[in-house]
Structure formats: structure tokens, C-alpha cells
Amino acid sequence: CGVFAIFGHPEAAHVTYYALYALQHRGQESAGIASIDGGKLYHHRGMGLISEAFHGEEQIRKLKGHAAVGHVRYSTTGSSEIANAQPLVFGFRQGNLALAHNGNLINAQQLHDLLERQGSIFQSTSDTEVVAHLIARSHYDSIVENIRQSMSMVKGAYAFCILTDDKLVALRDPLGLRPMALGRLGDAYVVASETCAFDTVGAEFIRDIEPGEMIVIDANGLQSSFFGGKTRKALCTFEYIYFARPDSDIDGYNVHAIRKKFGKLLAQEHPADADVVIGVPDSSISAAIGYAEESGIPYEIGLIKNKYIGRTFIQPSQELRSLGVRLKLNAVRAIVEGKRVVMVDDSIVRGTTSGRLVKLLRDAGAVEVHVRISSPPVTHPCFYGIDTSTSGELIAATKTIPEICEFIGADSLEFLRLDTLLGAFGESAGENNYCNACFHGQYPTEVYEDTSKYVLE
Ligand code: 5GP
Ligand code: SF4
Ligand code: MG
């Protein structure tokens, strides 16, 4: 998912609306904005892309106030339906709350059961509502304390933006699994999952929000504090590999630059005898350019993506996924015909994309297809908000690299080694700063193996 929030701007909802467009790649199932004006909460949520969820100026203008929070969703807990769209809004004894959450709570089911036994009535099946109930039931006089208290009970990955009647609270889980940054737009503060949202609305990046940091913004300015105790840091490496936009900077590294470096390292580690290097749009272009630059093999555009179809993996079902891939990409015959092609992709998850693309390239006349992947094989499910929650779906969980190579029909297949990938971050950024659990199964939190997306249904 993607979150954005702003405090102290006369056009808060408008700015949020534009910023969400910059975060659209982080979720395409639903979109929403909530704003607060003088103790009154306004909100609009809809299914699909932002352009589908919102229809025209009028709707945005109704979202009054100087503070707003927005969300684009891609579901990792709870199905894709309007009840699960965010921001989640509710009122309780301390006023209004609007919550926008990126990530996945691993103990949502446990907390949900506990809360239900104690009388809570749930309206959605998303893990975010659990947090809403925790906040509503906390008994401090200060809403900020109630939020802090609630966050100490949830485990997993989260970046939250929470709007109250007079405050914006932004917090990032103690491991920093999901990214979140702080910026400034004139006199207003802004918070976003990725810095590309700041560029889009003309805001200035101030800094990343730290793991375990809670930022409270109100009429008196900004206050920072830490919660949850000191742990290791575990930012998701997949944010760099695949998920984030190349023009974003996350925790000190530009995403494009890092991907390009992955590509260079991949070329050193796994060279190929070939005539042309191509990348799988959009997320692998940077790595393919790096591979070409390092290997001296010319970079070409050999695959064209239909821009008007969302990311395949964001479609909820396997049937839709398979359909999406065929609609989505086409080979450029003039480029690949008669050529030995290196096809760089950022990851192999289920293995369906690579297989289809290899076939596409061969059908377009490629004589050899060498697949190079700018990340290690994904062997373990993710419990933190990237949509690979069962190991049954992961091709590398059951097949060796030669078997995957055969499955996708490539002439050769190689993956970037994990230690090489981490080397791209330089000496200061060792294994301990990143989550790499889907590559080796060493999760930075406890996990509940039976967790499925539909646990709360
Ligand atoms: P798959 O191997 O599942 O067919 O898809 C891998 C390709 O789709 C890669 O090009 C990657 O960019 C994208 N992709 C699809 N689903 C996911 C996912 O759940 N996680 C990641 N990291 N990439 C995915
Ligand atoms: Fe990211 Fe993988 Fe960790 Fe999930 S398990 S947070 S995808 S690195
Ligand atoms: Mg891709």
C-alpha cells in the first residue's frame, strides 16, 4: 500500500489526491482520502485506481480542512472490497480518527479474536481495523498516548498515518520494515511512503522517519519520540528490488541507482554471451541498464509494456494474473529477431511471468534467451505486506535453479547472490539493516505460519 498525509495546508485534500497518483504503483485495489476540518471528518473511498475511485473536482472539494490523509491499497490481509478500503474512519469518545496503513500486522488474528471476545464488533476484515479498536479501547486521557499504547501491542510491518481532530500522527514499526518519509510543503508538513510523492506535489524532503519513531504534528509544530524499544533494523529489500518507484529515495539510497548497481553486480557475477540486453518494464529497466553498462552488451528496448494495465501481481486471483501478463507486454521483433538476448528481470516469484516472456521473445525470433534476475530466488513467504503469503506459490520453494530454468524455457538462468545484493548498499549497510526473509526464511519477527490473507474472514 501507499500512504500520504499532510497537516497545515489550505488545499490538504487536493495535495493528497495528487500525491496518491505518485504512489499508485503501491496499490491499485482501492483509494481513499479523509480530511478533518474543525472537528468534522470528511472522507471518500472507492475501488480501483485513484482515477476510478474519484470522479472530478467536486468530490475532492468536499473534503474540507487543513489536514488530510490518503491511501492506495493492495491487499495483504482482508479481501479486495470497499469495506476494507482506507483510510479507515471512525469516531470515539476522544473524537475522530482516520487511519491509513501500509504493511501487514502478523498478530492481527490473535488481537482480533481477543477484541471480539471482549465485545468489539468488526466492520471489515482488514488488519488495520484491529488497530482502530485498540486505540478506541485504550484508557489514557491523551490520544497520542492511546496510539502509542496500541502500537506496542501490534507486531509486524507498518507505516501508519493517523489523523485526529487536531493532530497528525505518523509512525513506522520498530524494525522499519516499510518505508516512510517526512517532508515540508510551505508551512505544512507532509508524510509519504515514498519521496516521489513529495516531488509530485512540490514538497521538500526533510528526512526518513526512523524505525520505531512516532511523529506528532499539530498547531504547535512537530514532536518526535520513539516507541517499541530498540531492535535491529529490517527494511524490506524488495522495496529496492521491485516495489518502490525508481525516482524515490529510501533510507538514503535512490531506488534507480541501487537497482542499476544490482544490475552491474549481476553482470559481474553472471555474465552471458549475448548480443543485446533487455529489461522487463518497468521495474527491471534500471537493473538492465546496469547489466548492459557493466557487460558492454548494448541495452535495447525489447519488451513494451501496455501502460494502461496495472501490475499483474496486484490483481487478486491467479486467473486474473495469467490474463494480465498476456495483455501487458509485447516483444519488439525488430530488436530481438536473430539475436542472443539477455533478459533481466528483478525477481522470480511464481515463475509465470518469466516463462511467458521467454516464449514471447522466442516467438519474436530470439535465438537464445538468457534470463538474469537481479535478486536471489524467493524461497519463503512474506508476512509483511508483499503479496506472497504462501510458499506453495513460490517456484523457488520447490524447484532448483536448473529446474526453474527448464520450467521457464530459458537457455540459462542466474540469480544475484544475497551477499552481493547487500554489498550494493556499501559497508555501512550489512545484512542486519535489511529484511531478507523471503530469501532465507530468517524472519525479523516471530511469524504465524498459518497466516493467510483471509484470516479475518
Ligand atoms: P512471477 O514470477 O510471480 O510471475 O512474477 C515476477 C515478476 O512480476 C517480476 O517481474 C516482478 O517484477 C513482478 N512481481 C509479480 N508479483 C510479485 C510479487 O509478489 N513480489 C515481487 N517482488 N514481484 C512480483
Ligand atoms: Fe520484504 Fe521479503 Fe522481508 Fe517480505 S520477507 S518484508 S518481501 S524482504
Ligand atoms: Mg517486473
Automatic annotation (TrEMBL):
[4Fe-4S] cluster binds at C236, C382, C435, C438. Mg(2+) binds at S283, D345, D346. The keyword Magnesium applies. It comes from the Bacteria. The keyword Glycosyltransferase applies. GO terms for molecular function: amidophosphoribosyltransferase activity. CDD domains: GPATase_N, PRTases_typeI. It is an enzyme of class 2 (transferase). Its cofactor is Mg(2+); [4Fe-4S] cluster. Pathway: Purine metabolism; IMP biosynthesis via de novo pathway; N(1)-(5-phospho-D-ribosyl)glycinamide from 5-phospho-alpha-D-ribose 1-diphosphate: step 1/2. Binds 1 Mg(2+) ion per subunit. InterPro entries: GATase_2_dom, Ntn_hydrolases_N, PRTase-like, PRTase_dom, PurF, PurF_N. Gene3D superfamilies: 3.40.50.2020, Glutamine Phosphoribosylpyrophosphate, subunit 1, domain 1. Keywords: 4Fe-4S, Glutamine amidotransferase, Glycosyltransferase, Iron, Iron-sulfur, Magnesium, Metal-binding, Purine biosynthesis, Transferase. NCBIfam families: purF. In the C-terminal section; belongs to the purine/pyrimidine phosphoribosyltransferase family. Catalyzes the formation of phosphoribosylamine from phosphoribosylpyrophosphate (PRPP) and glutamine. This is Amidophosphoribosyltransferase. The lineage of its organism: Bacteria, Bacillati, Bacillota, Bacilli, Bacillales.
